[in-house]
Amino acid sequence: xxxxxxxxxxxxxxxxxxxxxxxxxxxxxxxxxxxxxxxxxxxxxxxxxxxxxxxxxxxxxxxxxxxxxxxxxxxxxxxxxxxxxxxxxxxxxxxxxxxxxxxxxxxxxxxxxxxxxxxxxxxxxxxxxxxxxxxxxxxxxxxxxxxxxxxxxxxxxxxxxxxxxxxxxxxxxxxxxxxxxxxxxxxxxxxxxxxxxxxxxxxxxxxxxxxxxxxxxxxxxxxxxxxxxxxxxxxxxxxxxxxxxxxxxxxxxxxxxxxxxxxxxxxxxxxxxxxxxxxxxxxxxxxxxxxxxxxxxxxxx
Length: 301
Ligand SMILES: *[C@@H]1O[C@H](CO)[C@@H](O)[C@H](O)[C@H]1NC(C)=O
Ligand SMILES: *[C@@H]1O[C@H](CO)[C@@H](O)[C@H](O)[C@H]1NC(C)=O
Ligand SMILES: *[C@@H]1O[C@H](CO)[C@@H](O)[C@H](O)[C@H]1NC(C)=O
Ligand SMILES: *[C@@H]1O[C@H](CO)[C@@H](O)[C@H](O)[C@H]1NC(C)=O
Known about the structure:
It is elongated and about 120 Å long. The model is unreliable at 1-28 and 291-301 (pLDDT under 50). It is α+β, with helices and mostly antiparallel strands. A hairpin with a 3-residue loop joins β9 (137-142) and β10 (146-156). It is built from four helices and 16 strands. The structure holds 2-acetamido-2-deoxy-beta-D-glucopyranose (4 copies). One 2-acetamido-2-deoxy-beta-D-glucopyranose binds next to loops. The site of one 2-acetamido-2-deoxy-beta-D-glucopyranose has 3 residues, from loops.
């Protein structure tokens, strides 16, 4: 090796020169590993670690490691049992490592260690794996005096708190609302986080409009609170039932009327039971009930 004869030469020159070589080597190594490359990926996606390499020199071996754990790489003269980390592939004749199906747990510092003929270099690559949060949804639960609104977003990383966007709320010292809680729950296996918050709105000052909530850079649809007209539960069963009840009363009235008329005239009034006459019939029935007078022109065409 060329370097060993150089070292021997320096050794013969005395300790001060030898020290100079050492210092030079340390500074050189430090400059080689001074940069940390930042790499970003998304959970379930892929990334490529492009370990910096000096193409003018011959690579003896390349180790891609996490701490002291060998993950992938190659050796010019020895065979390395193929890749240890199942979701990595090495690009042929290169120091580029592809990593597939990223997990949050793949985040961390990776080391690119390259042995050339005369020197070993190391570069660090910091991988950050994130996951996008779902669009937050707001669910309301209101009574006459207050509204509890829960805003929730799922499956993101890292943990981010829910932000409430309430127009005009900065202008008051005591806003008519209070954040009950703001929690991040992390799933043990995937490390993905569900973020949610509940706010208690005091409805005595009336409606609040154009509210929204956000988690990171995803924002919910606009919504309003303390507005009885917009409340989804204003469609009470009573409102739906009311027209049915009216219809039923009309039918009963008609049936009763026909029955009554049949007794009086012997004719079935269903023959004339035109739908447009239903209301008229009902009124006639009422009159008949009051006066007991036979209505002669009832059967006229
Ligand atoms: C990741 O790489 C695999 C294999 O090449 C490919 O099938 C997949 O579509 C890639 N996924 C993304 C999100 O790029
Ligand atoms: C937050 O507060 C609301 C209202 O008090 C409650 O219903 C909900 O369970 C709480 N959520 C958490 C995660 O503690
Ligand atoms: C990613 O995480 C899932 C769920 O914990 C696990 O089943 C899978 O083996 C992990 N994948 C890798 C490549 O570590
Ligand atoms: C709601 O606000 C009104 C007026 O600002 C106040 O009198 C009332 O005590 C508040 N209610 C609650 C439950 O805080």
